[in-house]
Amino acid sequence: MKVLVLNAGSSSHKSYLYELTGPLPPTPPTPLWQATIDWSGGGQLVAKANQARQERHLTEAERPRAIAHLIATLTEGNTAVLENWQEIAIVGHRVVHGGADYSQPTRIDADVKATIRDLCTLAPAHNPVNLAGIEAIEQLLGDVPQLAVFDTAFHQQMPAAARTYPLPYEWVERGIRRYGFHGISHEYCSQRAAQLLDKPLDSLRLITCHLGNGCSLAAVQEGHSIDTTMGFTPLEGLMMGSRSGSIDPAIALYLQRQHDFTPDQVDRLLNKESGLKGIAGGDGDLRAVLAGREQGDERAQLAFAMYVHSLRRQIGAMLGVLGGLEALVFAGGIGENSPDVRAAACGALEFLGLRLDAAANQDRPRDRDIALPDSTVRVLVIATAEDWAIAQACHRYWQAELA
Ligand code: ADP
Q1: Taking every pair of C-alpha atoms in the chain, what is the biggest distance, in angstroms?
Q2: Together in a domain, 9 and 70
Q3: What are 86-98's pLDDT values in tens digits?
Q4: Which of 65, 107, 126, 206 sits between 20 and 30 A of 363, alpha carbons compared?
Q5: Which domain CATH number covers 234?
Q6: Lateral strand order in the sheet of 368-369
């Protein structure tokens, strides 16, 4: 069966077509076709299939029409891999915010779309573009089954003590609570960790560190997230590329009262101008911070030290919640590629008997254990594969409900 995956983000839109036959491999196979629209470059579409490539600049800013161009490369030009679109059995979408309603991948219907729309106020950079992707597929492929795979779902079973903010209870009842994000990645990394360790997932306590432009940790016990660093929105928790992570909320009030900031200006400051970018300057890319640090740039040095401090502090918090740890997992662009960040995070845990293999930490191959044999805690580097996790969810749904 052929599964189309759409992963619409604020600055890019990625799509993959997988052919699923027989037992599914644990790590992503090469897709039949993949295409990306990079909005930061003003709408650059790149499609690849059959070792061929199509590239074009899209003039329209409107997402559904841009997605129609992207999908067209499945049947047109040198990247054509389908005779017609009806060959697609099911379409899976990454949906960032599923609110309190969804803890499982869910078939999209009018009610699900209405919920995703209602949650746009909580995820304004993501849910509207996720919805645009769903509607574009409806227009193009008619009533093909569509599945929403939510980034919040993995955290839905967090205990009440972990998900509730200490606010007046009325606001708790009105939905101000911790939802958590990056759930597709945390769940995939947990399952992959169990495979690499060759142990049942329900026997493991894990801390999964998803460190990309956005960064979050999950405390995973018996295969469930029991705590996570992101909360009501993806702003809470770790210091990130351009997001502040947790700060005293009174800073936002101070900016509004004393410096006449509007809510939108506060939003921009905390989400787009803070984090590594705010401290080191540049665009919040860790590679630039690392280069600046090497050259003795004091703000780059401070930014790196703060990033590591924030990571160590939050790993400590997750450790306290779990009460023990079998493995620490690193994923995301930073987690997968930065030996410096991994070494700095692990350095704080030597008192537990965690011992990093310095040579293995420098190696390139992914999905590996980088702890020394006598380490009391395993340390894993895993190439996260959200798109493959969505394809797997589509396959499971198809087998259970549609086959
Ligand atoms: P997103 O959250 O947008 O999916 P990624 O997971 O691709 O982002 O992560 C982007 C981050 O990964 C950037 O901060 C980038 O600097 C960092 N990164 C990528 N490659 C490396 C590397 N080789 N060394 C250090 N950091 C890296």
Answers
A1: 63
A2: yes
A3: 899 999 999 999 9
A4: 206
A5: 3.30.420.40
A6: 224-228, 215-221, 205-211, 327-331, 378-381, 368-369
